[in-house]
Amino acid sequence: MSASKVLVVVGITGNQGSSVANAFLNLQGWHIRGITRNPSSPAAQQLTSKGVEIVKADLDDIASLESAFHGASAIFSVTDIYNHMFNPANFPKAQEAGISVNEYACNLETTQAMNIAIAANSPAVSSTLTHFVFSSLSDTKRWSKGKYTWNFHFDGKAQAVKRIREELPDLAAKLSTVQVGMYASNWKGGLGRPQKQEDGSFVVQIPDGPEVELPWIVVDRDTGVYVKVLLENSPGKNVLAYTQMTTWREFWTLWADVRNVKIDIKVVGLDDYFKTLPEFLSREFQDSLRYIVEFGYTGGDPDVCCTLQDLSPEARTASLKEYIEGEDWSSLE
């Protein structure tokens, strides 16, 4: 291996992980190693064809993670609560434990995040590791002072960061966090998806509430931009990653302007906005959105104070206009 540094990406076949890999693929001096449970998957094979080293590891198996991290200079890690939340096997387990499936999934996500951290902190890995970048989100319960308690997809990650700082001080000294904003591509999941009318115009729903600016991100491009600059800086940085700050209404108005279509923006209550989701997920997303509107995406955490330009004045993200121009919207026709 001729590269002087090894970047290991946990979750490399997902939106965030693949963005990080792509940001480093053509950089001299870096070798990219991706972690996956299934190296033969199409996504893993596509990365292999680009020169990424794909290795098999399991987030529930610390020994496999230690092996996969061997020789790493830097690790980027992202965990996924939704795999646990939608696993049918976890519903009876949550019921038996007397908690919601959301909380059960949250606990599993935190456990896997700590498995990653424990492996990264092991002597064999720690000897070469200089940076550990963890994709986190803000501590809802803490920053809302207990007002919002069902934002588990935030709090599981925040709990992992808290535990790393308390339990693994050596790794904590190498830790930076990136809080990834709201995906500009979320419409693909159905929520807020523009509906074409007979006259060729579109109707789109946005949730009721104060129209605050939100951190939208072109996740499969710009996550890598932020992680790259975190690795160019000393550890200890905490940054909110976004492409552009804008309101729901401004986002869809821009979309209509760029695509030269008419749009009717309908403001609906949160119950209506999330009505197509299962109850457990609707409650989760309603709490999450109320928290973001009232306290901000980072909850006002004073430690999340770096901007992209603070870290690297030359670094640039995409724009939402560029995203809209480059996205495939044919499924709306």
UniProtKB/TrEMBL annotation:
InterPro entries, per the entry: NAD(P)-bd_dom_sf, NmrA-like, NmrA-like_oxidored
Pfam families per UniProt: NmrA
Keywords: NADP
Boundaries of every NmrA-like domain copy: 5-317
Record flagged with keyword NADP: yes
GO cellular component terms, A-Z: nucleus
Keyword Phosphoprotein (UniProt): no
Family note: Belongs to the NmrA-type oxidoreductase family.
Annotated protein name in UniProt: NmrA-like domain-containing protein
Species of provenance: Penicillium arizonense
